[in-house]
Amino acid sequence: MTEADTRHAPDEATYYYQDDRDAKCPFAPPPGLRALNENGPISRGRIWDGSTPWLVTGHAAQRAILSDPRVSSDDKQAGFPFPNRVMAESAHLHPLTIFNADGADHTRIRRMMTRPFTRPRMEALRPDIQRFTDELIDRMLAGPKPADLVTALSLPLPSLMICALLGVPYEDHEFFQEHASFATRSDKTTEEQTAANQALGGYLAGLLQKKMEEPAEDVLSDFAARIKDGDLTLPEATLLSMILLIAGHETSANMITLGTALLLENPEQIARLREVEDTRDAANAVEEILRYVTVATFGQRRIAAEDFEFEGAQIKAGDGIVVPLPAGNWDPEAFPEPEKLDLTRKANHHHAFGWGIHQCLGQQLARIELQVVYGTLYRRVPTLRLAVDRDDLSFRPADALAFGIGELPVTW
Amino acid sequence: MKVVVDEDKCVAAGQCVAAAMDVFDQRDEDGIVVVLDENPPAELADDVRNAAAVCPALAIRIEE
User: Fold this and answer.
1) Distance, CA of A323 to chain centre
2) Alpha-carbon distance A332 to A338, whole Å?
3) Residue A164, Cβ neighbours under 10 Å: how many?
4) Distance (Å, rounded) from C-alpha A219 to C-alpha A244?
5) Domain that holds residue A278
6) Nearest-5° angle of CA A365, CA A369, CA A372?
7) Neighbours of B41 (CB within 10 A)
8) Of A183, A280, A397, B20, which has fewest CB within 10 angstroms of its CB?
9) How many domains does chain A divide into?
């Protein structure tokens, strides 16, 4: 067998996907994943259930596979490479959503959700995001030291924004933050996640019914109007609302926390960020941080709908395909010296939000939140620093659906 | 330079507007791409090429 044959043979797959990051370089993708990509953009890897889907690690190959119509997101197909047991066991319950629909079905569902998240609408929210950010920083500075940045800023800011957009009362945030976090955690059982989903679903269905009577200017009222028009059923609208509420929370929050921890280790970069005046340069810095600490670590999951050859690999219909986004974002072919954090790098072709038709719906909201937070926090608190040793930070385990840090004790 | 878009392919990610806001906009009702300037001036050419390169749905074509 040639070297490529070995890499492509299911029985020879030794690399365990979701292996740990190097404790000395916790922001970098797992070293094994990077090593795999050095040998070629596609290999077999082993996942939690012992199956050996394809791992597409190269940046160009990720683009190609994620926009290939012969590749499906249908999680009802036998052989679909689920991220964990809980998701595999509950797959038969999954209705059609933007995550598991292909083609025309996907377009129909996605277009019911895109209106509130356009770039112009998100730009219009910038002053609100700035005000919330300033208020949260004021409150943190007025409180005791050290403070946990996660509870002081990282979590409340995206939470306030997504609540305002959806029309969900922020007063209920403790309830839905707790339930929403269950969806991305690996330490919960199927029963616990199902119970959390039902509680959250019941809550949102109640709000949707209220918005049918008393509509306001928000996403839930849009969905309520679609229920009245017969475009959506109440359970469908509930699910769409739940997806937006969950997705709007931990992703941006983890980026604020991780980005801050990363920047505090790179004082020359943080100094540069403090001096940035041009909004384009500020936007560019955010793209580089997104590339560097990609939160969606679990890898996009797909299944081949037909046989085809791809980058020298013979892919068969029914083969699982995993696309680990951090590997593409650290591919030296696309980003020379990927381990170097360089806020002036042109990095907006990164895959932090995925690629193809499933690319993140809320990415423009996330971008503007991050532009405002990174552009404000270090300027307003120039002496900001970690209150604990970097090695004592609680990085999320490799099998969590989102990369992050549980708490970030900071002082100033 | 001429900009051609495919509305059917567009997934309203907003990448083109972020890259070249003088040339692209999004339809208010569903975020689908709107071309503001089909023949953008030379000084915007790099931005427009970048917009096409970062469109996740490959919905933007440029005729040089």
Assistant:
1) 14
2) 6
3) 16
4) 10
5) 3-411
6) 140
7) 11
8) A280
9) 1
CATH number of the domain bearing residue A124: 1.10.630.10
Q: DSSP letter string over A159-173?
A: HHHHHHHHT--GGGH
Q: Do the Cβ atoms of A234 and A207 come closer than 8 Å?
A: no
Q: Which of A14-18, A294-298, A369-373 has the lowest mean pLDDT?
A: A14-18
Find residue A66's DSSP bridge partners: none
Mean pLDDT of chain A: 92
* Amino acid sitting at position A335: F
Active site residue A311: no
Residue A409 in this model has a pLDDT that exceeds 90: yes
Instruction: Give the active site residue among A152, A180, A247, A327.
Output: A247
Contact assessment for residue B46 and residue A311, using Cβ atoms and an 8 Å cutoff: no
* Tokens at A369, concatenated: 């939140």
A98-130 pLDDT, tens digit each = 999 999 999 999 999 999 999 999 999 999 999
* pLDDT tens track for A311-355: 999 999 999 999 999 999 999 999 999 999 999 999 999 999 999
CA atoms of A189 and A242, how far apart (whole Å): 19
CB contact under 8 A, A122 and B14: yes
Amino acid type, B31: G
- State residue A276's pLDDT score: 87
**Is A305 among the catalytic positions?**
no
What is the model's pLDDT at position A15? Answer: 85
CB contact under 8 A, A363 and B13: yes
Q: Which CATH class is domain B2-63?
A: alpha beta
Rounded to whole angstroms, the Cα distance separating A191 from A170 reads 27
Report the C-alpha gap between A294 and A266 in whole angstroms: 17
* Residue A313 bears catalytic tag: no
Q: To the nearest whole angstrom, how far is the Cα of A408 from the nearest Cα of chain B? A: 31
Q: Strand locations in A256-358, DSSP E?
A: 300-304, 308-310, 313-315, 320-323
Closest chain B residue by Cα to residue A63? B56
Closest CA to A27 of A331, A287, A350, A258: A258
Annotated catalytic residue within A13, A236, A241, A250: A250
pTM given for the model: 0.94
With cut-offs at 50, 70 and 90, classify the pLDDT of residue A185. low
Supply the DSSP string of A45-69, one letter for each residue: -B-TTS---EEE-SHHHHHHHHT-T
Q: pLDDT tens, A285-317? A: 999 999 999 999 889 999 999 999 999 999 999
